[in-house]
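ARCHIVE CARD
CATEGORY: sequence design from structure
SOURCE FIELD: tokenized fold
FIELD CONTENT:
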């Protein structure tokens, strides 16, 4: 039996697979090593897994995680996992590696994550061969839910959105102009508020302002990420993440306008990761 884990900062999906059949599908908190010390990670793993997975039965663990971007963090996570999965061979890698494997399998191409944040890489069918640095929500994250939220809010607060849309925004979030500014500049983690606007945009996508914000966000992602890779218009480009999936029709439109070959769009990587690891 093998375990495949797809871990973000807020949640982790664990799947136990035996001969291609999923036996357990469990969601726990996220395990980002940038936010957890080793003892905290070990405690959290035992608390959340022991009632659902018998660690002694597992032969291999493939853990793809946000924050597993350097050797030190990968080693920390691997050590903690080894205490629970005592007999298993353990692989730890970045969530971008997991996304590429899920989306492209053994084929080369460009893999993209468009969720709360955004990221991308080139994949040669076995490993990541190039990726651009992630500058985070404050400086970049084009194509993400956070970036979309910023674009939409700029239009609303600048009085450039439809009056009905602006009224819906203030009613939905129980805010006015001044309290919105306070939420952005006077409270912690404004990026979370920006990201929450992605759902609002989806619910109001029939408004021109919302659709244009989504298109602009995707166009900026193409310009700042995808177009930086060599020969990108002859590469297959695939996507995973809630934003890519929810707005997939608009994403396809933007890709066609930029003469980019679309591969697949997955809401989450796990489906592709199961296929990748059971076919090897």
């Amino acid at each position: 039996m093998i375990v495949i884990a797809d871990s973000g900062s807020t949640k982790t999906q664990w799947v136990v697979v035996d001969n291609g059949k999923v036996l357990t599908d469990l969601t726990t908190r996220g395990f980002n090593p940038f936010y957890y010390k080793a003892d905290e990670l070990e405690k959290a793993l035992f608390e959340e897994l022991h009632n659902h997975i018998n660690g002694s039965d597992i032969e291999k663990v493939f853990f793809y995680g946000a924050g597993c971007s350097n050797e030190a963090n990968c080693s920390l996570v691997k050590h903690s996992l080894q205490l629970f999965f005592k007999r298993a061979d353990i692989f730890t890698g970045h969530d971008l590696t997991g996304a590429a494997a899920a989306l492209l399998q053994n084929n080369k191409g460009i893999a993209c994550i468009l969720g709360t944040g955004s990221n991308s890489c080139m994949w040669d069918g076995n490993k990541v061969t190039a990726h651009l640095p992630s500058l985070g929500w404050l400086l970049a994250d084009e194509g993400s839910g956070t970036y979309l939220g910023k674009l939409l809010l700029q239009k609303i607060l600048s009085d450039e959105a439809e009056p009905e849309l602006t009224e819906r925004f203030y009613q939905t979030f129980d805010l006015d102009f001044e309290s919105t500014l306070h939420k952005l500049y006077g409270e912690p983690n404004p990026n979370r508020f920006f990201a929450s606007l992605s759902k609002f945009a989806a619910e109001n996508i029939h408004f021109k302002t919302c659709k244009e914000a989504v298109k602009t966000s995707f166009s900026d992602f193409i310009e700042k990420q995808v177009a930086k890779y060599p020969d990108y218009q002859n590469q297959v480009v695939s996507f995973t993440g809630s934003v890519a999936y929810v707005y997939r029709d608009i994403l396809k439109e933007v890709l066609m306008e930029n003469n980019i070959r679309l591969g697949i769009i997955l809401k989450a990587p796990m489906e592709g990761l199961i296929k990748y690891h059971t076919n090897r």
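CARD ANNOTATION: The chain has a mean pLDDT of 93. Strands lie at 2-7, 11-18, 21-29, 60-65, 89-94, 108-114, 118-124, 128-131, 236-240, 261-266.
SHELF: design records, drawer C
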